[in-house]
Amino acid sequence: MGVVMAVARDSAHRFSKMSAMFIRLVAGLGVEGDAHAGVTVRHRSRVARDPTLPNLRQVHLIHAELLAELVAVGFDIGPGAMGENITTQGLDLLALPEGTRLALGASAVIEVTGLRNPCVQIDRFRPGLLRAVLGRDAVGQLVRKSGIMAIVLQGGDVRPGDPIGVALPELPHRPLGVV
If both were cysteines, with which of 96, 123, 152, 176 could 100 make a disulfide (CB 3.0 to 4.6 Å apart)? Predict the structure, then answer.
């Protein structure tokens, strides 16, 4: 079980999001008041390709352990800085299988859809950051460490300090792919 460390949103398409006292998740849409909320894709690169595709990136989560790792190697990074809506602690987000449901706060439930694929914008934000959020596993496979994406199944308010409940999907588990 993990905990929510910080929450953030931004009504404009900027790289970083502003920390908030709480965020409201809306079923089928995402974070109320966030530029990426919607039934169909909202990320500009995806809208340019096909604006009718479903929005599998309604909520972006990053683990605080990654932020600590980045600070330790010299990056000035805090919650919301990489565009995440929810910063978690104590939960290995990258190891969760596709379809995992996370219970947040008193009533919100989100479903993990996949990995965030870091792009060149991350280096524009902090030079060298792209390389820092990419790694290799024991067999040489690329590891994307810049968080996971989810859709909102059940709405509710989420605040720092809220516990995160985890419900794994039925077997066989599918590893996260890029969404």
Answer: 96
Q: Which CATH number fits domain 2-167: 2.30.29.30, 2.40.33.20, 3.30.420.40, 1.20.1050.10?
A: 2.40.33.20
Structural domain boundaries of the chain?
2-167
The tokens for 175 are 């590893």
Q: Which long-range contacts (CB under 8 A, 24 or more apart) does 30-38 make?
A: 30/55, 30/58, 30/59, 30/85, 30/151, 30/152, 31/58, 31/59, 31/85, 33/9, 34/9, 34/10, 34/85, 35/10, 35/11, 36/60
Phi then psi for residue 8, to 5 deg, are -155, 160
The whole-angstrom separation of Cα 147 and Cα 65 is 11
Could you read off the pLDDT tens digit of each residue along the chain, which spans 179 residues? 899 999 999 999 999 999 999 999 999 999 999 999 999 998 878 888 898 999 999 999 999 999 999 999 999 999 999 999 999 999 999 999 999 999 999 999 999 999 999 888 899 999 999 999 999 989 999 999 999 999 999 999 999 999 999 999 999 999 999 99
